[in-house]
Amino acid sequence: MTHWWSRVRPDNFTLALLCTVLLASFLPMQGAAAMVLDDVTDVAIAALFFLHGARLPRESIVAGLLHWRLHLTILACTFVLFPLLGLAFKPLQGWLLTPELYIGVLFLCTLPSTVQSSIAFTSMAGGNVPAAVVSASLSSILGVFLTPLLLALLAGTSGGMHNPGQAIVSIMLQLLVPFVAGHLLRPWIAGWVQRQRALLRYTDQATILLVVYSAFGEAVNEGLWSKTPLLSLLGVALVAAVLLGVAMPLITLLARRMGFNRADEITIVFCGSKKSLATGVPIAKVLFAGGSLGAIVLPVMIYHQIQLIVCAVIAKRYARTQDR
């Protein structure tokens, strides 16, 4: 029984996410306290991306840029294949997905790749780790520009987002500028960042939980749960599972048809199929306002958990075939 539960039990961060959503559902911040929390969240997000910039080695950027064909393939999967798959779910809008949840699905499909987990799974499976570092980091940086533009293209005025040009400027100021500042200061702070690696991992997660609590609290105040039918909640979980179930085989097939070796195929599969919760929630906070924010980030949160479970299984399978 214990062995069975250890295999299906969600990881600690996912449990923390669920607890945060429950807390925001029953005890959301209101009034002046919510405004203060919003300001604290903005500062925490800026600090998060400052540390991301400080962690990225310059040598990895230079070495990885030489493998341009692999990086273009991953970026095409992230910012071309996924948005097209997102459009395929449009017929579900209105009867299985509420309009806000469908915008959330489109938003999920336009997000950049994750950084930490893409690298971790690539390493576990025996893939090209330096290329994964560069591709995932490059994807996150380009996502600052491409996510709002793609979402504006896919959703149009029905998305409820701010002006894309203004959104890009806001995202640059809140995410990209701290990231670049952290990277420029890396020669002086890299040692400290490396020594505090374990602690900073928890600060990353705490920042995401803070943003989720703020977003869901605001959404609950606007009537998120009363306006979202149970069928739509089940529908968005089904859509997230189908999305990953279709994308990963297509990406694997693409990598093999293009003649990439095994290590590069692994990198393409994991970097090309992942979507970043750590980048997505802060971007959503800038792009959207009001009660729709909680519903829009819900598909990202569900997809995040599904991709961790599926990628862990696939990474172990790659590792076993390598051993044989």
TrEMBL record:
<dbReference type="Pfam" id="PF13593">
    <property type="entry name" value="SBF_like"/>
</dbReference>
<keyword id="KW-0472">Membrane</keyword>
<keyword id="KW-0812">Transmembrane</keyword>
<feature type="transmembrane region" description="Helical">
    <location>
        <begin position="231"/>
        <end position="255"/>
    </location>
</feature>
<protein>
    <submittedName>
        <fullName>Bile acid:sodium symporter</fullName>
    </submittedName>
</protein>
<dbReference type="InterPro" id="IPR016833">
    <property type="entry name" value="Put_Na-Bile_cotransptr"/>
</dbReference>
<dbReference type="InterPro" id="IPR038770">
    <property type="entry name" value="Na+/solute_symporter_sf"/>
</dbReference>
<feature type="transmembrane region" description="Helical">
    <location>
        <begin position="133"/>
        <end position="155"/>
    </location>
</feature>
<feature type="transmembrane region" description="Helical">
    <location>
        <begin position="276"/>
        <end position="296"/>
    </location>
</feature>
<keyword id="KW-1133">Transmembrane helix</keyword>
<feature type="transmembrane region" description="Helical">
    <location>
        <begin position="70"/>
        <end position="89"/>
    </location>
</feature>
<feature type="transmembrane region" description="Helical">
    <location>
        <begin position="101"/>
        <end position="121"/>
    </location>
</feature>
<feature type="transmembrane region" description="Helical">
    <location>
        <begin position="167"/>
        <end position="185"/>
    </location>
</feature>
